[in-house]
Amino acid sequence: MTRRTLATRDAGWAKAFARGLGRAGVRPNSVSIAGLVFAGATCGFFYVAPDVPPGIRALALVIAAATIQLRLLCNLIDGMLAVEEGFSTKTGDINNDLPDRISDVLILVGAGYSAHVSTLGWLTAVLAVLTAYVRVLGGSLGATQHFIGPMAKQHRMFTLTIATLVSAIETMLDMPSRAMPIGLSVIAAGSVMTAVRRTARVVSEVNAR
Asked: How far apart are alpha carbons 47 and 114 in whole angstroms?
């Protein structure tokens, strides 16, 4: 399994959590599916946010921010169960990568609907998937799978989490909804830069053979 470098994997709590889940019989594929469920929940909270009273809208956005982080936690733990705890399977890469792409689309599209900028949400989702496609394409050509940014998955989700929390504050203060469109625009622009950087690395490696 090809993985991005994450300092969090070395954290004591993460190791203990993964070890405990492994001993309890939890396997990586189940955690990957749980991450997809959290992404679906995030999309749902985003989607209903515009149609509910301000107080409930703010709560829905805060919960959406929390489920984004729970999705990331699942992304961390499934890899640790597979590699560090030794529960990898032949289809592990499929179960690890495919739900991630679906999760990206669900979350980013939902974010767009939450602020009435659905077109921007769809565009950002497409660009996010493109960054992953370039990475996997490089691997299929025998090159290194590059996880570089500036808008890799963890950067996208961090930016979106901040935008979501600020959107909740905007709602409570009865301010115009600006944080989410700005956040999605930053993710979209950063995803273009990320795809270009990764493509350049792949082309350089392939040409160097």
From this structure: 5
Give yes or no for a contact between 43 and 106, defined as CB atoms under 8 angstroms apart. Answer: yes
pLDDT at 8: 79
Instruction: Report the mean per-residue pLDDT for the chain.
Output: 93
Helix/strand/coil (H/E/C) assignment for every residue in 73-98: HHHHHHHHHHCCCCCCCCCHHHHHHH
Instruction: Tell me the whole-structure pTM to 2 decimals.
Output: 0.93
Cis peptide before 150 (omega within 30 of 0): yes
Q: How far apart are CA 27 and CA 92, in angstroms?
A: 10
> How far is Cα 150 from Cα 161, in angstroms, rounded to an integer?
16
Which amino acid, 16?
A
Considering the four listed CATH numbers 2.170.120.40, 1.20.120.1760, 1.10.10.60, 1.10.3720.10, the one that applies to the domain covering 9-207 is: 1.20.120.1760
The domain segmentation of the chain, as residue ranges, is: 9-207
How far, in Å, CA of 50 to CA of 113, rounded?
A: 8
Please tell me what DSSP assigns to residue 116.
T
CA gap 147, 145 in Å, rounded: 7
